[in-house]
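To close the section, here is one more complete example, presented without commentary so you can practise reading it yourself. The ligand is adenosine monophosphate.
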Amino acid sequence: MSFVIVGSLAFDTIETPRERRERIVGGSGTYCALAASFFTRPKVVGVVGTDFPKGTIGLLRSHRIDIKGVSRRSGKTFHWEGCYGADPNMRTTVRTDLNVFAGFKPELPPSYRSADILYLANIDPDLHGPVLAQVRRPKLVAMDTIRFWIENKSEAVFRELRRVDVFFANDEEVKLLAGDNNLVRAGKKLLERGPSIIVTKKGEHGALVFGKEFIFGVPARPCEDVVDPTGAGDSFAGGFLGYLDKVEKITPREVRRAAVYGSVVASFVIEAFGIDRFLTLTWGEIETRFREFKKLVSF
Ligand code: AMP
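Output:
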């Protein structure tokens, strides 16, 4: 199988109640690819500026991530600034400097075009069409979105829902898009708009996965010290889709396991700032925590 991710490679400025970090490496594509690299060999499409560290590109390579689809343009890398309150589920976007991302026209190298799984991380929904036109016959297409696109391009988001199999969003975004304050009703409404699976991420409360014939809940690992929640959503998607990329057949049971792996990987990334936790994370730690999850919900 092969897994292609189209997303941002970024500098993030992050403020938590305890600490502020300026311009550390982040981006939806970066988090998702690193998370997925524990399961498969992801291929990334994105753009960086001349200021993006060569060391990070080397780090992605050392995780066996294919970066042929990442181009370097003259100018500055995409920069996002976010601020968390005492409740780590509450995040405010302080600023978004698109920089080289403004003219991003995703171009898939020939070796990416036979992708089995395609993930459109929270990019402009109007870019989906041109990306989909470049892949031959993907088995599964997934997308994530953010409040910004729901508020500014909701028609485009709905149009794109028709073309994807899996839709990831946080609970607040699912309710906003569906126009319903009840998460279960909202999830079901979005199922009628196209995707066969809606993954609703609920921060420290885990995730709810809506399928046509099932609802599956996965907890978040109880964590006393959330250092930096940034990237948890993209890492969840990376773990989820990375796992599905290596299974023989995508069945409802595998979708459940994928959701647990997504939650497990996300539980690591929030333990340190930015992508730092990925620098030390091992497959053994992932497996140990996967077993812990089983105990957490067995009765
Ligand atoms: P999350 O997994 O939701 O915490 O995603 C956080 C990442 O999304 C950060 O590393 C940001 O760089 C990235 N990000 C934030 N806004 C955007 C945007 N408009 N387009 C692409 N990536 C973004």
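Once you have examined the tokens, check your reading against these statements. Residues 252-269 form the longest helix (18 residues). The two ends are 36 Å apart (CA to CA).
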